[in-house]
C-alpha cells in the first residue's frame, strides 16, 4: 500500500527536470524534511527559477496564502504546462511528508528503480494515485470523511468544505459531529481514535518534521495498515492544494453542501 508513493517519486518529465529539482529542494527546505530524489538537470539556471522558488515556498508553508499575483505570474510563465508543474510541486511538497510519516510508523518507503519520463504528472497524481487511495477500505467511511474535512479546512479549500460523502453520513456522520472537528481536542463527540487520527493529520500538514508523537498516538488506536491508509488519505485529500494554489477551488453549489459517493474505483460520483 505504501508503494503507491513510489510512482510519484519516479516522475521526471524531460521538459521539467529542472522544475522538478527546484521544487523538490525548495519544498523540502521549507518543511525541514529530506527532499525526494530527483534526476539531475543538465540545463543552466533559468529566469523562472526565482518565481518557482517563491511559489513553492508559499505552496508548502500555507497554500491558502498564495496571492493572486503569484498565481498569475506562475500561469503566465508556464501557460499550458502549469497543471503539470503544480502536480510536480505537490509531489515535491507532500511526498517528503508522507515518507516521514511512514517512517515514523515503522513502514519503509521504496524508492523508484528508474525515472518515469513518460507519464504526465497530473495524470499520475490526480487520476491514478487519488483513485487508488480512494479505493482503499481499511478505514470506515466516517473516519475517512473526518480526515478529509480536517484537511479541507486546513488548506482552506472552498470546494472540499462544501462536499459531504454519502457513505459517511450513512455511517453516522452529521453536521453537528463535523462541526466538532474544528476544536476536536475539546470534543465530547469525537472518539479518542478519531482525535489521534486528527492530531496526525495536523502534524503531517503543519509540523511534518516532528511526527513521532502523533504517529505513536495513531498506532495506539489503529493497526499499521490503517495508519498507512490514514497517511495516504491525508495526501489524497491534500491534492486540494493544487486547486487552491491555482484558484480552482470554487464550490459547485452556491449555498449549503453537495453530496457525493466515493465509488468502488476510488473516484467520486455526484448525483
Characterization of this structure:
The protein has 271 residues and is mainly α. It has two domains: 2-130, no CATH class; 138-270, AhpD-like. Helices cover 57% and strands 4% of the residues. It has a three-stranded mixed β-sheet. Helix 5 (82-104) runs antiparallel to helix 13 (224-238) and helix 11 (192-206) packs antiparallel against helix 12 (212-219). 41% of the residues are buried. The model has no long low-confidence stretch (mean pLDDT 96).
Name the descriptors.
oxidoreductase; mainly alpha; peroxidase; 2 domains; 3-stranded mixed beta sheet; peroxidase activity; 271 residues; AhpD-like; 14 helices; 3 strands
Strand and helix map with partners:
Layout: H1 6-9, H2 17-31, H3 49-62, H4 68-78, H5 82-104, H6 121-134, H7 141-154, H8 158-161, E1 163-165, H9 166-170, H10 175-179, H11 192-206, H12 212-219, H13 224-238, H14 240-246, E2 258-262, E3 268-270
Parallel strand pairs: 1-2
Antiparallel strand pairs: 2-3
Amino acid at each position: 500500500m505504501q508503494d503507491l508513493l513510489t510512482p510519484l517519486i519516479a516522475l521526471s518529465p524531460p521538459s521539467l527536470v529542472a522544475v522538478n529539482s527546484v521544487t523538490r529542494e525548495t519544498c523540502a527546505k521549507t518543511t525541514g524534511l529530506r527532499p525526494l530524489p530527483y534526476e539531475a538537470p543538465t540545463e543552466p539556471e533559468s529566469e523562472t527559477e526565482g518565481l518557482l522558488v517563491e511559489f513553492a515556498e508559499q505552496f508548502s508553508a500555507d497554500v491558502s496564502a498564495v496571492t493572486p499575483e503569484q498565481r498569475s505570474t506562475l500561469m503566465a510563465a508556464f501557460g499550458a504546462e502549469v497543471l503539470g508543474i503544480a502536480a510536480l510541486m505537490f509531489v515535491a511538497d507532500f511526498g517528503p511528508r508522507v515518507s516521514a510519516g511512514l517512517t515514523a510508523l515503522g513502514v519503509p518507503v521504496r524508492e523508484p528503480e528508474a525515472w518515469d519520463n513518460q507519464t504526465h504528472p497530473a495524470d499520475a497524481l490526480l487520476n491514478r494515485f487519488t483513485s487508488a487511495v480512494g479505493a482503499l477500505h481499511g478505514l470506515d467511511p466516517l473516519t475517512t470523511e473526518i480526515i478529509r474535512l480536517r484537511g479541507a479546512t486546513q488548506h482552506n479549500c472552498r470546494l472540499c468544505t462544501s462536499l459531504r460523502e454519502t457513505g459517511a453520513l450513512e455511517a453516522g456522520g452529521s453536521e453537528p459531529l463535523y462541526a466538532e472537528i474544528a476544536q476536536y481536542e475539546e470534543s465530547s463527540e469525537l472518539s479518542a481514535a478519531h482525535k489521534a487520527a486528527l492530531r496526525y493529520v495536523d502534524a503531517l500538514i503543519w509540523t511534518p518534521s516532528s511526527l513521532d508523537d502523533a504517529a505513536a498516538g495513531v498506532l495506539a488506536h489503529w493497526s499499521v495498515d490503517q495508519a498507512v491508509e490514514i497517511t495516504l488519505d491525508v495526501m489524497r485529500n491534500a491534492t486540494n492544494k493544487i486547486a487552491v494554489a491555482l484558484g480552482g477551488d470554487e464550490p459547485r453549489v452556491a449555498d449549503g453542501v453537495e453530496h457525493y459517493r466515493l465509488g468502488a474505483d476510488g473516484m467520486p460520483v455526484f448525483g
